[in-house]
Write the structure tokens for this entry.
Amino acid sequence: MTFYSILALSCFLLTLLGTRLTILALRKRVVPFDPASLRPDYKKPPLKGGGVVVVMSLIICLLVADINYAIVFAMFMLTATSMLDELIDIFLPIRLLIQLLAVMIAINVVGIEVFGGLFPMWLDRVITAVLWVWFINLFNLMDGMDGMSPMEMVSIGMGMCLLTVLSGHVFPDMLSIYGLIVAAAGCGFLWWNWYPAKILLGEVGAIPIGFLIGYLLLLAVAAGYSYAAVILPAYYLSDATLTTIRRIYHKRKLLVYHSDYYYLRALTSGRKPHAVVRYIFGINFLLIFQAVFSVIDPDLSIFYVGLAYASVFMMLGFFAHTAHDPKYEPF
């Protein structure tokens, strides 16, 4: 237990100090202005490129924790593709094909039927792969506000760790170790990404991290925590999926920068980015305990899933339809 606690602390320090060094290095360079980087309340865009440090810190610590080399290879492949995309703008279908290849590698590593025999094996894997690719991209799409992605890393990572410990399993096991490392990396990057952010995660970080979190969710299903795996990412899943459905219904372009996500709509009523992230962290904290209860009391698992998504939908409605009192900020 002491070894893995030190490993998590090392991941935190690697990310924290590595990001600081990256900031110092990037400040000495002339970075072209990118209008998409100019977030609310900014006079100039923050630096880009923090994702490389986070991903490398995760890979180093996960290798020490003896993660399967195929997962590391897939993360390298996604990171390299995202870096190359920033240079030469890779055609979208090619990027999706590479993501699909990465998730198929990981699915073969885990080797489980996610839907429990409901479909033939080949169809089960195809559906799992498509859902995983969607999760990778929605994680990237949701990285549009300071502190959002590292906060989600901390929430899901700690959720995985608490899930195994509070449900009676002995710490450490594979799921709790990986979850602890992801949470530690998220904490290290959150220090620099909190509003107003000094550096952004970017696609080069969000894509492989979304892949890794998807892998953790798949491990949770393999460990028998299927309902918990649906509950923990409920906010990201709901906001991104409902927004995409709305844009398809209104025949709007999907592959352009927009502010239709519910967490961004909250800004239009006057809320500050850090206040919105705190609201989402609060709902994630609730989701963690609902996930734990779904494991402790499996007879009520469906109830906890419904309660989790009802809570998230209430938060989405709150963001979209309530006015903000400038005298009040949460926490």
